[in-house]
C-alpha cells in the first residue's frame, strides 16, 4: 500500500529514530497469522522507497546497498502496515510474504530453538536452495 503523499512519507521518516550508523531495525511479521518472519535493517533511503512503492526494501550491511526483498529469489514482501515502536527506534512491518522469507528456504528466519540442551532446527526448508537461487 504505497504512500503517495510525499509530505506523509516525510513525517513518517522524521518520526523514525535511526541509530548512529543511520540504520533502523525492522521486524517483518506476517500480516495474516502473525508469524515473525525475519529481522533486517533499513536506512532512510530504504524506508522512503518502502513507503513510496509498497514493496519492502531493506539495507544490506554486508553489501552496503539497498536490498529489495526478493530481487534474486522472487520471495517478495509487500507491506500492509508499518508501525514504529514507542521510541521510534524499531519498525514493525506487517507484510504479505510471497514464498519463504528466509534465505535458507524456510518460511521464517527464526527456526532454531533450544531442545534437550541442543540448538535444533525446528522448521524444515520449504524450498530447495537451488530452486530458490539457482545454485
UniProtKB/TrEMBL annotation:
Quaternary structure note: Homodimer.
NCBIfam families according to UniProt: PRK00051.1
Record: residues binding Mg(2+): 85, 87, 89
Known pathway: Amino-acid biosynthesis; L-histidine biosynthesis; L-histidine from 5-phospho-alpha-D-ribose 1-diphosphate: step 3/9
Keywords: Amino-acid biosynthesis, Cytoplasm, Histidine biosynthesis, Hydrolase, Magnesium, Metal-binding, Zinc
Residues annotated as binding Zn(2+): 86, 102, 109
Main localization category: cytoplasm
The EC number(s) this enzyme carries: 3.5.4.19
One function term, GO molecular function aspect: phosphoribosyl-AMP cyclohydrolase activity
Gene: hisI
Alphabetical list of InterPro entries matching this protein: PRA-CH (IPR026660), PRib_AMP_CycHydrolase_dom (IPR002496), PRib_AMP_CycHydrolase_sf (IPR038019)
Catalytic activity: 1-(5-phospho-beta-D-ribosyl)-5'-AMP + H2O = 1-(5-phospho-beta-D-ribosyl)-5-[(5-phospho-beta-D-ribosylamino)methylideneamino]imidazole-4-carboxamide
Source organism phylogeny: Bacteria, Pseudomonadati, Pseudomonadota, Alphaproteobacteria, Acetobacterales
Protein name: Phosphoribosyl-AMP cyclohydrolase
Domain Phosphoribosyl-AMP cyclohydrolase: 38-111
SUPFAM superfamilies: HisI-like
Role: Catalyzes the hydrolysis of the adenine ring of phosphoribosyl-AMP.
Family: Belongs to the PRA-CH family.
Cofactor annotation remark: Binds 1 Mg(2+) ion per subunit. Binds 1 zinc ion per subunit.
Record's subcellular location: Cytoplasm
Amino acid at each position: 500500500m504505497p504512500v503517495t503523499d510525499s509530505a506523509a512519507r516525510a513525517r513518517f521518516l522524521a518520526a523514525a529514530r535511526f541509530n548512529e550508523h543511520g540504520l533502523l531495525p525492522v521486524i517483518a511479521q506476517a500480516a495474516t497469522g502473525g508469524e515473525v518472519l525475519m529481522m533486517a535493517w533499513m536506512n532512510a533511503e530504504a524506508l522512503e522507497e518502502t513507503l513510496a512503492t509498497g514493496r519492502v526494501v531493506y539495507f544490506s550491511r554486508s553489501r552496503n546497498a539497498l536490498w529489495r526483498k526478493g530481487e534474486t529469489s522472487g520471495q517478495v514482501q509487500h507491506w500492509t502496515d508499518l508501525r514504529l515502536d514507542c521510541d521510534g527506534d524499531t519498525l514493525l512491518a506487517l507484510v504479505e510474504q510471497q514464498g519463504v522469507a528466509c534465505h535458507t528456504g524456510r518460511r521464517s528466519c527464526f527456526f532454531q530453538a533450544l531442545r534437550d540442551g541442543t540448538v535444533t532446527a525446528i522448521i524444515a526448508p520449504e524450498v530447495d536452495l537451488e530452486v530458490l537461487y539457482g545454485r
